[in-house]
Amino acid sequence: DAGVTQSPTHLIKTRGQQVTLRCSPKSGHDTVSWYQQALGQGPQFIFQYYEEEERQRGNFPDRFSGHQFPNYSSELNVNALLLGDSALYLCASSFQTGISGYTFGSGTRLTVV
Amino acid sequence: SQQGEEDPQALSIQEGENATMNCSYKTSINNLQWYRQNSGRGLVHLILIRSNEREKHSGRLRVTLDTSKKSSSLLITASRAADTASYFCASDMVDYKLSFGAGTTVTVRA
């Protein structure tokens, strides 16, 4: 049973560039959430997608955008990268409201130089 | 901003001992979840306790929830080297997002 799959695993980008991270949810899940985890901190909620729309958004600037496809997979896009965007980006999938819990992927480690 | 805080920040115990960590949160919740993270990789869901539950067990894990104090605790009994990890509590509020604390780093010594 495939869990949540994220790609790529690691990524190095230059300040000012744009990046796209990808996530395939666990089979049976229809909702995808994205989290940013800086070193030594807990994950911070970026946004959640359900039925191909952004349902909820955390306190992140508009440089962070996303998309959900009809097959429930999702992308996270970050424009005009800053050094402070260096972090582990985690994707979590759930069924609808997530009342039964979330399944997280292994994350994408983004380094901005 | 983070909804919750874990205490202690770090914990070092001998194999076979019990490990207890606490979590406090700020607002009303639907449920509270505990996750484990090894070496900065993905989060593994350990246990979910709903707001109307007071205690829950799963294998060597025991979680309690006190909604009047807005706090929860995670007990790992008979710890093993493989339990070495960071543990996070996450409060699930009504707005479709999890709010995490900064985590407790647990080291189990052989």
A few lines on this structure:
The complex is a heterodimer of chains A (113) and B (110). Chain A has no helices and 11 strands.
Q: Kindly state the percentage of residues in helix of chain A.
A: under 10%
Integer average pLDDT of chain A: 95
| Series of secondary-structure elements of chain A, N-terminal to C-terminal | EEEEEEEEEEE
Largest interface: A-B, 31 and 24 residues
**Overall 3D shape of chain A:** globular
Helix content of chain B: under 10%
Low-confidence runs of chain B: none
Strand content of chain B: over 45%
Described by the principal axes of the CA atoms, the overall outline of chain B is globular
Number of helices of chain A: 0
What's the order of the H and E elements of chain B? EEEEEEEEEEE
Q: Structural class, from helix and strand content of chain A?
A: mainly beta
Work out the radius of gyration of chain B: 13 Å
Distance between the termini of chain A: 37 Å
Low-confidence stretches of chain A: none
Q: Can you summarize the main beta sheet of chain A?
A: 7 strands, mixed
- The count of helical stretches of chain B stands at 0
Number of strands of chain B: 11
Largest sheet descriptor of chain B: 6 strands, mixed
Strand segment tally of chain A:
11
